[in-house]
Amino acid sequence: KEIKYNLDYNSIFISLSNFLFSKKLKQKRIKIKKIINWFENQCVDKGWNFGFRINFKNSEQIGYQAMTNAPMYHSLSPSQYEDSFKVIPKKIAVINRSLIKERSRFLKNKNNFILSPALRSQDVFNIKYKKNRTCKIVVFLEGNKISSDLRIVKKFIYVAQRLPELVIYIKKHPRLNFDESTLLVPNNIRFSSKSFSNLASKCKISSCGGATTTVLQSLAYGCQLIIPTNNGYDRKTFKSLKIPNKNFKICDNEIELLNAVKHFINRNINFKKISLESMFEKINNKNIQIFLN
């Protein structure tokens, strides 16, 4: 029964393929100075890291974690056993200082962690704040599952029906698409294909899931934040980053979501920078060498 219902064979095959890839590179006597992988500490990562740690013992091996704090994903914080069995990288690169404490809680050696630049979030350091924002609210979908994204869309259909004068823009995640024509979408909901930075710089309210980097990027753009589902961890994450409570609302249901939208729409907002250094590490001549040398 267990074998029958274990449908995640794809991850198992990728993990084995990653291991065999490093083995064949060694057989071909290819020399590797440095190995960097996107590190979420899932089984595909374990096959990769175990393969390179036993086949290329003298090479530098770094796991890059470009995601922000997500305490609900315990795998992001490796254990001492995983280090002992060589299924994690020798070094783990994180994108802000507060993450070192979070990600090293199950490891004896804190030197496993290094501070690296948040490569995909550097645009937040060049934001030009616009006081007169042309749209009220943009919903950024997470893109984990179509069913989850559709639940969020349906919550905002509820809001749109009760606030017909409000135009709500929805941005699908680029890796996950669905046919919105199957939904009964009111005229004041519009799907946008514009970039995140284009939308975030023009909107007053950003709504996105709490377990994504988009959350902190939205705050960095000066948006008021609405999280449409409560995973129980977001408040702790914001507290660790010293995000003021007045900057966000976490909603358990459609009624709370509606009230949060009304609250921020009727509020005069002074767009000020939140301390970006507590969220993202800026590129400098020293930390960029992690990837170049």
Secondary-structure element order, N to C: HHEHEHEHEEHEEHEHEHEHH
Number of strands: 10
Q: What radius of gyration results from the CA coordinates?
A: 21 Å
Major beta-sheet overview:
6 strands, parallel
How would you describe what is shown here?
The protein is α/β, with parallel strands linked by helices. The protein has helices at 2-5, 9-27, 43-55, 80-84, 98-103, 146-162, 196-200, 213-220, 234-240, 254-265, 289-292, and strands at residues 34-38, 60-65, 91-94, 113-115, 135-140, 168-171, 189-192, 203-208, 224-227, 248-250. It contains eleven helices and ten strands. The protein has a six-stranded parallel β-sheet with strand order 7-6-5-8-9-10, sandwiched between helices. It has a four-stranded parallel β-sheet with strand order 1-2-3-4. Strand 8, helix 8 (213-220) and strand 9 form a beta-alpha-beta unit. Helix 2 packs parallel to helix 3 and helix 6 (146-162) crosses helix 10 (254-265). The longest helix is centred in the first third of the chain and has 19 residues, at 9-27. The protein starts with a helix and ends with a helix. The model has no long low-confidence stretch (mean pLDDT 87).
Tags for this model:
single chain; 293 residues; alpha/beta; 4-stranded parallel sheet; 10 strands; 34% helix; globular
